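Per-record layout

source: Actinoplanes italicus
name: NADPH:quinone reductase-like Zn-dependent oxidoreductase
length: 296
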Amino acid sequence: MLRECGRPPVIERRPAPVAADGQVAITVAAVPITPLDLLCASGTSYFGTPATPYVPGVQGVGHLSDGTAVWFATSAGMRPGDGSMAGAVAVPAGDVVQLPPGAPLELVAALGLSAVAAHEALHAAGDPAGRDVVVLGAGGVVGQAAIQLARLAGARTVIAVARSAEALAWAADLGATVTLPLTEVDRLPAADLVIDPIFGTAAAAALRALRPGGTLVNLGSAAGATAPIDSAVLRGGSLRVVGYTNNSLTPARREAVLTKIAENAAAGRLLVTHRPVPFARVAEAWNTPGRTVLTF
């Protein structure tokens, strides 16, 4: 339960919610702590300050009463109501996606909407097959997913940019053709598409590497809320800068992409680094770097 914006949630006991008409009861198995959760709980998000107290968590995985494995979404922190960080939830049926047999729940929780965003960003400018793709922030969940999804989609090359040597080595293991430290982003080879979850000066440098008609898709600002973009670069190359958010997805499209993500995870084609933490330790895990998955 988040009782005060800017502070970690606390564990509280309360009766299990009863599903109303149009809702589905779910026993929760795992919930990721995502940047959106932290942003909403800070009280500084573009959705406004949420009413407290509320249960945070915009997504999770669990089981229906008949044992069916599902992924589900909530609007906690964005609109009034409780979220996924509870042992049991009741959510609208339209926000529930049945998972394929054998889907690894903890991994699906770690991937979740971050992988959905990576997939949709890759396709925001058409089919990535045969294209040279730059992935900024390759050490994050969106970046890791984008590398693998680009290769699965038939990208010609995938150039991964990250801060640490460890992240770059992992990016190569995931299938990146070229890896480049963030400090050397000005040395990017020519590309057709940039997946950008970080923005800032790196995004400006990546724009300069785009071929004429290329596209940069921004879906985050981990490195800065603004970027020093040169108008001449945009106009000279007839470049496109596209902003992406999962909030623009229809439930049907989200379900289709999430199902594909879960199928790839079940087949061992999609991985992401994450750290499982028991639910009772949510307070200490709240602001830990990397993807934490609360387990029940």
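summary: The chain has two domains: 23-112+251-295, 125-243. The chain is about 30% helix and 25% strand.
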